[in-house]
């Protein structure tokens, strides 16, 4: 079946503004008559949201790195079949708060899991499906963590060390270097209005080339 919608993902470390800017993106696309589906990872379906709780809740049992990686992809497999692919086939544009770039950054960069293992799972679970456009919100780790800590108590992954989040940030920026056409880096330690004008700068040609052609 042919895919008609576009797949946009939002990425970055803690508190960089992914959730805040999701509604801005939705409003922008809706204004241009584009149907939008908003979702997130890990999560997006009842089963995947259960997995999210397992992944993020602190517990006495230590989750192994392998189990964490496989749970991320288990949630993703369900989410893709139940939500993302049907929405794209129906012509909706899907905006997803985090996707597989987060796995390369957190499990690959943060936990040092092999990129080949992640790539194998990516191909196995996603086939050829990749995001069409990704916004990588980037800010110094301390700024994002300060914002996230101000907002709520910390979950299991948010309780990691500064070194872990520096590795995550580095891995994200490396991916952006490798795929500059798809991954647009947005400086997010600036005023929200400036963040959103950068988003618009990248989104506008994307909308007009793909949707109005
Ligand atoms: N994870 C993983 O390890 N592997 C994977 O494959 C996937 C995920 C998919 C859940 O993610 C965790 O799962 C995440 C990675 C891991 N772990 N951690 N840690 P999540 O997306 O649900 O959780 P999050 O990264 O912690 O998101 P967040 O803290 O909600 O951050 P955010 O959505 O980017 O930020 P925000 O809520 O929009 O903004 C934070 C605050 O900053 C808020 O008060 C805003 O009003 C404020 N803000 C935002 N922008 C600005 C600007 N420009 N100026 C000033 N203030 C601002």
Please report the first level of CATH classification, the CATH class.
Alpha Beta
Biggest beta-sheet profile: 5 strands, parallel
Strand content: 5-15%
Total number of domains: 1
- For the record, the CATH architecture stands as 3-Layer(aba) Sandwich
**Rg calculated over all Cα atoms:** 17 Å
Overall morphology: globular
Ligand set:
ligand Z5A
Question: How many DSSP H or I helices?
Answer: 8
Helix-strand pattern, N to C? EHEHHEHHEHHEH
Pfam family, one: Thymidylate_kin
Domain Thymidylate kinase-like: 10-199
GO molecular function, one term: ATP binding
Catalytic activity: dTMP + ATP = dTDP + ADP
Could you walk me through the main structural features you see in this protein, from its secondary elements to its overall organization?
This protein has 213 residues and is an alpha/beta fold. The protein has one domain: P-loop containing nucleotide triphosphate hydrolases (Rossmann fold), CATH 3.40.50.300. It has eight helices and five strands, in the order E-H-E-H-H-E-H-H-E-H-H-E-H. A five-stranded parallel β-sheet has the order 2-3-1-4-5, with helices on both faces. Helix 2 packs antiparallel against helix 3. The model has no long low-confidence stretch (mean pLDDT 94). Ligand Z5A binds next to helix 1, helix 4, helix 6 and helix 8. Phosphorylation of dTMP to form dTDP in both de novo and salvage pathways of dTTP synthesis. It catalyses: dTMP + ATP = dTDP + ADP.
